[in-house]
Specification:
The structure is a homohexamer of 337-residue chains. With 337 residues, the first copy, chain A, is an alpha/beta fold. The first copy, chain A, contains 9 helices and 9 strands.
Chain lengths: 337, 337, 337, 337, 337, 337
């Protein structure tokens, strides 16, 4: 466990699940999911604060931190039907990105080797490079596709004189061969970045990026369905990277580079649900939650729910329950006394 | 009038309507609606602050507090076409829920006996027990149905060692016979509470609960129409209970237990309008507005408008105007000089 | 340039574009667009603070202030494909509206005479009178139509004993003959103002006002299309006035008179895009951004993007690119290496 | 009472005292003190918001609004031992300072003519001109001295092209002859305004201004004692003008032009006590409280207490109690059963 | 450990000290100090929120939560030189003060019986009754004196119809015989409460209350020295109760009933140091920290430091170090290599 | 000028002074003072945000940004009597402290070589190493003493696995020989860091550290006078490093590691004045202002005034005015007409 992590919030686990140590495989035996904190904001180009993201995401919930969360919609308990452990925060010094990222990558790989899905709580989006990279290191370069929710493509080349930062992880993942550009699905892009030459590079990689205009015109469900078919072609697993700024700033003000005109919280939660119900998710990160800019913890609460939605849906996918029917009333078919 | 109420905000009436005294029937003569404040947050399980809700709801409006509000959409003035009075705050000590709730219940019953619709401004949702209970005490147990907007079912049994609290009022209403479980319509539920055994209890009562997944899939209007038909079957009146957390935290951050993924403010206002236009509403409460967690008063402003929308629609329902046509342009058929 | 403007924020230009001086036509030679700041909140009826709006709108962006913003959706760079200059703030003393408004009107007219589109950053909405009036002074009274996004009609007669204020500019524009009432399109009205007698006056002017109920029922796109056909009938140009309170307070909390139930940020941005793509816009103002009531700068960021969306779309309209196709994938038809 | 005042907060009186009407002398019969609200911020040079000051000062108190406040220190009840009434807010349109200030001046004069001390709740400091001017209009020009707590001298000549604003009232008072420059005592000045030529003008008027350096070096009590002797020389009464920014921003953040390095709240309260105990105060204003910039209402609470301290001390001065002894224990000489 | 406590913040211990269980004496073996959380705000008369106080006080510190805090000034490590344990939060339902307070009293007594000093983190001040009462239950009624820092005397009789609340604990302690009125020392009182009849009652009990006027006039050190001599006369131990509102709101905004004109943070810390260095402290509580009203955690940080200052001084008092010399330079007499 | 700096706030100069380029000596010709921005927070151990410090310090002032600030107290205009230029922000990527700090050091040295005093606006305190180091590189290692205002000694060895960070700059300065340990004066230390072994190291260096206890007991003026005599012994110049957290959090909440019990704003300003009046200051930095945690800009305003106080006093020291007399009335000896 990190020595410094608790400095960026209290030393707790995600909603009270058991602790583990990613350097001790025995402690992860039988785990379905292992949570890792990445309290790092050295890669952000604008507002910092995401170093406090992991603990905020872990604890922002009005219910008891008791390691149980039965989903009304999915009828699974993501924290009990799965074995979910929390390995604490990886030590990442925000002033030294070149040391911090590899430390996280090794931790992610530890988790994957233990047979668990890593769920990494950021931290700024520079961590997607070690997150998805660490998964690919174990499952095979080129064998993992990416579904990436974000207002920004994060495919910049060099920023602030560095190859590493929250605007570049997706480029580094593709350039390094860890992920295939043509199995890279981006949802929610908008605004005024990156510039045309970067878009040209993205096109050359055969990335598929859904800007909000297309999503608005064709419909989010249609775009997702199309993306799902690409994601599962010739790939064994899917990495889900959720930058909370994919949501509109009204729904997620506590973030570093807010871009107006995004998804609603409901749309994001429903999308995460579909992905984890329908696709073989092998890794997740939830990034760019910056508590100093949050109000009444609404952004942290949303990120907490993104994680829970994912866990609940993975549990459902792995359960013996019938296929999920979104039109079923809440109380249909309950056990009656 | 309460002695301590003004301690939780200035001693004013809702948008400047006239005062009355619920213990003095003469003062309520001819009233269509009587506003009551319930400055109580002793029943909340997480963030308090709703004791400041009643005064915030009464005063958060950028227009003069002049006792008039002509609705653009409905072409009625809810504060003038109806006789609306404000009986001030009921004295409710947050440290003593067992004394506070009966005091409110008696006040609500006073209002109903005077022939007026009580509109109770909360306060946390534990007040729904005395609110709807007080109405049923006068109109008859089992004769009033409930339409309940909320992220949470509020059907818990014992919490914090107590039968009384903001997670349990709906169970107590049904158990006590005041309301029928099979005339209990819940809109907007989501998230991770209550647990399955409580859902089983709810199913056994034949409650009808619309979780956000069903609402998203079938459409809010369809769900409402279905709910309306249940609500009016074998019941004489409808109690409308609006927990502001039915809205997404982006629209209503100032609340105690925010659950991401809710309705928009527009959806809530439109739903309240339809209910008050189409159904025989006999009581209303608007709860869980917590000013300390609000920003720029947007949650209090929304609650203020929920009340006004209800009043405007009740006025329209009681007016001689033709049926409401939502496609009519604003300026159609105006009096021209 | 104003002597006092920098007192209401730092002395910068909109996202780093070049400066000009509206009193010096040579400095505006070749300009397509000239930004003007109107740091004035003397006309507001409730919360002040919009005097800090112009600088907040100019600088709220997480990208470098480098005078370039390539739009992902529109494939134009509104700051480079157009020649955009910033003339700084007009000196407007909030305590003296009768001096302040004419000063702004003269500045706007200077810009129009120079052949540029004025984009005025407010300030409260009282500035719409000099903004649209100044345009009409040059292009001809009765020759410019108005598309007005707002929660409020702003057609009051006398408020606070004055003819001038943020609730009255639209009445003054029509009464003065600068704009035609029957070419006045209002989008997003809702709530409880103005009163019926003012609506009668509006009807008598043959204004066309789309209240949110009609928009919700008929669809925003339908209403916009209808409005566009009116706006271009017998008029040479369109003035676009965007009161940020047309958006729901959840999306735009930092404003003076927030009215729940409005548009989403996405809807506003898409609407502004359509207007500037499809209509001959001759002037724009973006008003009622009040930074003291904002949170994490989300309202200022939205206003900044409203301006950029308009500029990007104007650039597209003036470009040789094919007609805009909203279903086109982001990376379709890029230059490949 | 003002028609628009309640728009800037609820329509209440200072801590629940009785209402009066300054245009109706009978309503003020027997009054010792009459509170007036001046909800005006049209004269501020930087952050506005003081229009919400009067209601914030009236209501920010955690005790019941019951018209009673027994001072622990002074053993008087300023609201009961004196007859204190509240005449509500004067209608002052922030966009028209030239109309607004005379309206306030007339109201202040009404109060003085009724034999009461006016306590004016601002509002920005431009109201000091009508406040002290209105007192002098009745008691005689040149017969009232001024004790002025402020970070700023407020002796500017023309600002923003106007003679009227919050930086100039003291100059206008002296120039107009209402107050004598050599009976003008300023406490707490600091910082970087006004410029030398204005200081020269002040010196020429023989004003006595205590900058914080002198106060720190010689001691606040010494400075006050010296000032008191000047204030009472050849004058019949003293006007006390308290700009809340005389306090350090740590104690009073909610203000328009905060200057670091000021008095503590304790020092201000003790100074106000001494003035009202020892001098014949004939008028008071408390200005520059800007609620939008306040946190947890601490600035409004301080202003509320400045008023109460003044009233308690005036009551003590008028009482039959022995001279105030600050070393007396709280419980000394109490009535024992 | 409480079942519900973690709902009011993460389940952590004070700065990372070891946990214990107050119902299990063995777990407290050898403890010098046991921390208890009292997440209760049902007794507050105004702003709630102190239920979140215990966890905020436990975790608000920028240093690692590592169970060590070497005091620069006192040269002791309060968390290591003493054996400090944390028994977690007592379950206290804010809606039921009559059940909650006895539960806390029993827990406090458990700690005292185990030979440790209880340090209770509030919570509102109603907990002082069980805190000091629980200590007296074990050490003997009338054998413990009280030093009470507060803006308010907290000696009310019945408020909101109840004997129990944050304005009455001191009266109940004296009336019940747990503490002697003539060994009750109050520091920092000010403002306008309680009323004269309550002061008469206090005088009759021979309480000694230092109002801020006396403190300002005679000096804080003088008053403290005098109080110390009373506190140790015929008593075996001293209970220290610190209401954070004894500080000025500028230093402690996050509290329920802020009264301007209080101590500085420095004065409070120095006073707590002297008390714990010079007197036989047998119990401590730190109350009225309300995180929803705090800014940048400054109030919680102050309360965290009040606890640390007390622990450091107790450690010093129990150490073999020479008498504390406040004029000694920090680096005097250090171990040199 | 930096390419990325304007991303962390608008591209402005300190209060409107002229720009220069530190890489172009000609642009600095004749400069007395050159301001440099260090928008870096990669070295902070807790709350980030100081990257926005430089622009906040430059622009937080309610007066026009006109390059003039006549000091009331000192009777000099620090921006006019001196030639003050602003070289903009040095490009410092927060994710790469090992590249960022040398870049700043080179810039500081450029300024010193040009004969000007560098005033560096931080940024976190890790910049003190390049700030004072850059000065010593030019003026001579061991020839510059340090007066260091801070709650923390900043003499840590390795933190987060790095030699570089905001807790270690003072150790690195001494270890590297740039500054002498026995000419290192620290004012305002308090709290619980560093641990004893670090204090031993400090003692071994013969540093002189004034903890708040000593300051409170002996008096700040006495301590300063003593420190001044050390600082000028065998040194040619003094570097003044002001960590804003030397002030109490009530006066400076917007900082990364707030420690209760500090100086008042007034005490800091007076101390800075004395230093710059009495000592040969050759470099200044003002650090640890973190705008995301500030309220109403009070911390930024204080830092702005720290800079102005220093400049005003340097101007006074260099002027022909008589020795500064703090007891002189403000208006004494003014030019009369």
């Amino acid at each position: 466990m990190a020595r410094y992590g608790p400095q960026f919030g209290p030393d707790i686990t995600y909603l009270g699940v058991d602790r583990c140590d990613h350097t001790d495989p025995a402690s992860m035996a039988g785990a379905d999911v292992v949570v890792l904190g990445a309290p790092f904001d050295g890669g952000t180009s604008h507002r910092p604060g995401t170093r406090f993201g992991p603990q905020a995401i872990r604890m922002t919930d009005y219910l008891p931190h008791d390691g149980s969360r039965p989903s009304l919609a999915l009828r699974t308990d993501g924290l009990r039907d799965l074995r979910v452990l929390d390995a604490g925060d990886v030590e990442m010094y925000s002033g030294d990105i070149e040391t911090a990222l590899p430390a996280l990558r090794a931790a992610v790989a530890d988790v994957v080797r233990a047979g668990a899905i890593p769920v990494v709580l950021g931290g700024d989006h520079s961590i997607a490079f070690p997150d998805a990279g660490g998964v690919a290191d174990v499952l095979g370069h080129g064998r993992v596709s990416m579904i990436h929710f974000d207002a920004h493509a994060d495919t910049g080349d060099i920023e602030f004189g560095s190859l590493w930062g929250h605007g570049q992880p997706m480029r580094r993942l593709i350039e390094s061969g860890a992920l295939r550009g043509d199995r890279f699905l981006q949802i929610g892009l908008r605004g005024y970045w990156p510039p045309p030459e970067t878009l040209d590079w993205m096109a050359a990689q055969r990335m598929r990026s859904y800007e909000m205009t297309e999503i608005g015109h064709r419909g989010l469900q249609t775009c997702l369905t199309e993306a799902f078919s690409i994601a599962t072609d010739e790939c064994d697993g899917v990495f889900l990277s959720v930058d909370i700024d994919v949501c509109d700033p009204g729904h997620a003000p506590g973030t570093g580079t807010p871009e107006p005109g995004g998804l609603t919280a409901r749309e994001l939660l429903d999308s995460v649900r579909r992905i984890c119900l329908e696709l073989p998710v092998v890794g997740i990160d939830v990034v760019e939650v910056s508590p100093p800019y949050d109000h009444a913890d609404i952004t942290a609460a949303l990120a907490n729910r993104v994680v829970l939605e994912a866990l609940s849906a993975i549990a459902r996918r792995r359960s013996a329950l019938p296929p999920f029917d979104p039109s079923l009333p809440l109380l249909a078919d309950r056990n009656l006394p």
